[in-house]
Amino acid sequence: MAAHASSHDEHADPQPAPGLPAIADEAADTPMWVPALGLALFVLVALYLVIGAAFEDVDAEQAVDEAPAAEAAPAEPAAPPSPH
Predict the structure, then answer these.
(1) pLDDT in tens, 32-76
(2) CB–CB of 10/16 below 8 Å?
(3) 25/23 Cα distance (integer angstroms)
(4) Angle formed at CA 79 by CA 75 and CA 83, multiple of 5 degrees
(5) CA distances from 70 to 65, 76, 77, 80 (A)
(6) What span, in angstroms and rounded, lies between the C-alpha atoms of 40 and 48?
(7) How many CA within 13 A on the CB side of residue 77?
(8) Separation CA 25–CA 28 (nearest Å)
(9) What is the pLDDT of residue 10?
(10) Do residues 1 and 11 touch, judged by C-beta distance below 8 A?
(11) How is residue 33 annotated by DSSP?
């Protein structure tokens, strides 16, 4: 540490700004099949959801169409009460 009587002040000397470190890319190039596989899986899931939603709509319409027919069927007459 410099004494107070010293003419040299470490904080008074301008220091050069630190430079950016050199960038070394250590990662290997990604094979082309990786993004292609991701895109293919996305398309398959999207198709599954769209087709599944279309069949759910058809099933719901068939259930609604069949419900009034079931309600229109005559109900079985109730058995008369037993005398005992």
Answers:
(1) 999 999 999 999 999 999 999 888 876 667 777 666 555 555 556
(2) no
(3) 6
(4) 165
(5) 9, 13, 16, 24
(6) 12
(7) 3
(8) 8
(9) 63
(10) no
(11) H
CA atoms within a 13 Å half-sphere pointing along the CA-CB vector of 56: 6
- Its pTM stands at 0.42
What is the token pair recorded at 54? 């279309």
Confidence at residue 37, expressed as pLDDT on a 0 to 100 scale? 97
Give the CA distances from residue 77 to residues 3, 45, 80, in Å, rounded to whole numbers and listed in that order.
115, 51, 9
Per-residue tokens: 56: 């759910």
At 20 the pLDDT is 85
Buried b (16+ CB within 10 A) or exposed e, 13-43: eeeeeeeeeeeeeeeeeeeeeeeeeeeeeee
Rg over CA atoms, the chain: 41
